[in-house]
Amino acid sequence: MLAALILALALPAMAFAQPEGGFSRARVRAVLEEAFTAILERHLEAAAPADLALWSLRGLGAVDPQLSAQVEGGLLSLSLGARRLGTQPAPGVAQAAMAARRGIHPPPAAEALAETLSQFYASAWTASALLRAAGVERMLQAGFDEVFNHLDPYSRYITAEEAWQARQRRVGQTGLGLRIAAGARNSVVVVALAAESAASHAGLREGDVLLAIDGIPVSARRLVEAAELLEGLPDTDVRLEVRRGRQRFSVTLRRLSQALPSLRAEMQDNILWVRLSLFSAATTRQLADALNASLALSTPSRGVVLDLRGNRGGLLMQAMSVADAFLTGGVVAQSAGRHPDAQRIWRAEGSDLAQGRPVVILVDGRTASAAEIAAAALSDQRRAVVVGSATLGKGLIQIVIPLPNGAEVLISWSRVLAPRGWPVQGLGVIPEVCTSLGLDATRGELQQLGQGVAPMGAVLARARQARAPVPASEVAALRSACPPAEGRTLDQEVAQFLIDNPIAYEAALAP
User: Fold this and answer.
1) Is the CB of residue 141 less than 8 Å from the CB of residue 131?
2) Residues of the domain holding 51
3) pLDDT value, residue 165
4) Residue among 253, 32, 220, 69 nearest 144 (CA)
5) How does pLDDT run across 375-393, given as a tens digit for each residue?
6) Same-domain status, 362 and 330
7) Coil vs helix vs strand at 150
8) DSSP letter, residue 299
9) More confident residue, 104 or 56
10) Of 117, 151, 185, which closes a domain?
11) What is the domain-level CATH number for residue 229?
12) Number of folded domains in the chain?
């Protein structure tokens, strides 16, 4: 294991100042050690301790821009403007070798990292008035934010307050039909919208920035407060100030007395249309009820359309169960990571509740995470034809690590692989029938399918052969064959065509 020496073996360096009140180095060190133990052992990608230390210190610059860190000649240093606050050997292999030569057993990498960083943090706390004004929690968050900026887009540090609030409620407002998250430059961003909700009917879009709620300005640093402002008594109104690009506007939403259903099903022309906005704890049961009811009719359904457009995910195991509902066996999904516990295979164990009837899945550029996993499973197993555009490409699984200060780190520790072994992360699900290239291109595809030819066959075969990590150039080339776009009515028309034309449906199934 990579390790680093602490002060006993440090080269001559400037002494660290003692921190002023409000800062406990022992508590900070304990938080850092627990978090970096998890990162070093479990994160999907290996990171050198020296890099983690440098990124963590550079993160403090988000609180006090005068703080800067660098590594020169194997030495890690922290400065406030022109003033050097401290210098130590950068954690890594060289220090472990020095320890071996001196007959000293070096501490584990996470322990050494925590010891080194806690001293740097203590010195920064004493020297920076801005850091002291922000508080210890903000300092830790800034350090971890920079670390995770270098590792992956989904790992993050969750403050103690936010972790507690999340355990009490989802940081999402189902009564309004929207979910928020921290965005760039301390903004609060709408990251998900439920179909047929107050938010979607008001014209809000994913990516809209919330400036104020009922006249109170909001920011990412007080995300929990923003969530609480959005929540409120049923059947009351809330006024939002919104920015979209350079445009600013306000909307008033009415809070519902109950959460919106995650599944809606209806029969049209003897086809069961199922709209899934997210995967909740009740999704599989509701889907099974809808399928059973459609088959019990005097004229049973002749096909199923599963609409996952705009579905940002939800409960992973529910997505697995939804795929299982259409399969009689085989692999549903796999996961892989550095840690042995990250290696898993999920297999179908149920029966095909649709009894072999054709299944079409609608996706778009907003389909993400668990929804992509379900679509990939049914596509790879040749149980469904996917129609629409390339999906978002979020295929990482996070693990939650509780920290001694009540906070948590959410760490991406495994990547999801489709049954045929290709990674969902980055690549996303590429449909068998692409509608994002326009009406004429889609008509051409349907004409070829009617003749038994799969126009996306070569692209799909190439995508199924991809293995992680997929080069960015290959990801871009594959996704450009069917660029991500928002869903359109053309998707439904294609689904109807496929169910009405068995030859086209069979040709479209992934080769």
Assistant:
1) no
2) 7-151
3) 60
4) 32
5) 999 999 999 999 999 999 9
6) yes
7) helix
8) S
9) 56
10) 151
11) 2.30.42.10
12) 3
